[in-house]
Amino acid sequence: MHFGMDAVNPRAPNGTKVFWGAFMANWFYASEGKQQGPYPDGQFRDLVAQGVVRADTLVWSEGMAGWQKAAEIPGLIGGGGAPPMMPAGGPPMMGSGSYAGGGGGGSLSVDFGILEFTWRTIVALIGMCLIIPLPWVFVWYTKWIVSCVKVPGRPNLSFTGSAMAIVPWFFGFIVLAIAVGYTGIQVLSTAFYIVQIVLYWMLLKWMVANLASNGQPLGLSFTGSVWAYIGWNLLFAISILTIIGWAWVAAAQLRWMCRNIQGTRRDILFKGSGLGILWRGIVAAILCSLIIPIPWVYRWIMNWFASQTELAPRGSM
């Protein structure tokens, strides 16, 4: 049998000789968490040349054990040689344990259209003003914004929570607010503030527990104690008196919250600084006062917070 290339692959496992030219490879690549392909070798390399497939794009070809970044494949983007040959089979399922990004690292990102953000936000604000639809509007908006978050190794992130789960909390809170406002007793006002924080803590736990990828629950949980959460919020309220100290408290609280998300094989780390939050908060406040830039400012802020939230193999830090 004659092969188009008879070079021996020096990276083949166990020292075995593999002839890369024995077949024409079919390639797949991941785009926005979805599998694209297969593409013949020549067409796929055209995609590389056109910049559709970049160095950080996850790719797979017949014979590879799992998804890898294109830059890690010898000879695909710069360099020479061919990828290591492994027993052939179909591409690993995106989001499964064999998906390379599942145990790797990287930063989160957020992407959404300005027009879609605008109309969804207007609808959400109207729903909030009407009060009664608020739980359903909140869940509807959360489902959309979560779908805009890109997590390395966790394609098609989604939120699966039901509005009915928070209806009792919400209407109980409304009744309590009316009672406190009607009596005007200071002790009740203080208790109301604490209850409000506890409800936010419960909401956070519920939201984390209802995150999914490719329709499969991630099995995450928030394990931070309610007392610690109350303490952080009280500290934040006090820090506002310092004018700028709130930013450093916010950064520290975000780091604490990330550390207390369990159920993942990776550490979740918030790397943003108090100074970074402070100056962005000031710029955002100024621009939002002009009304028109609000969607762009919101996307800019969210992207920064996402970029400062990193996933790292557990124990690597």
Structure report:
With 317 residues, the chain is of the alpha+beta class. It has nine helices and 14 strands. The strands form five sheets. A four-stranded antiparallel sheet has the order 2-1-3-4. The protein starts with 25 loop residues before the first strand and ends with a strand.
Describe how the helices and strands are arranged.
Blueprint lengths: L25 E6 L2 E7 H10 L7 E4 L6 E2 L36 E2 L1 E2 L3 H17 L3 H14 L1 E2 L6 E3 L7 H17 L2 H24 L1 E3 L2 E2 L3 E2 L3 H14 L5 H15 L1 E2 L3 E5 L3 H15 L5 H14 L1 E5 L4
Antiparallel strand pairs: 1-2, 1-3, 3-4, 5-14, 6-7, 8-9, 9-10, 11-12, 13-14
Helix pairs in contact: 2-3, 4-5, 5-6, 6-7, 7-8, 8-9
Q: How far apart are the first and last residues' alpha carbons, in Å? A: 52 Å
Main sheet makeup:
4 strands, antiparallel
Strand arrangement within the widest β-sheet reads 2-1-3-4
Helical residue percent band: 40-55%
Number of helices: 9
Unreliable residue runs: 1-23, 79-88, 95-103
Q: Strand fraction band?
A: 5-15%
Radius of gyration: 25 Å
Structural class of the secondary elements? alpha+beta
Mean of pLDDT: 82
Shape: elongated
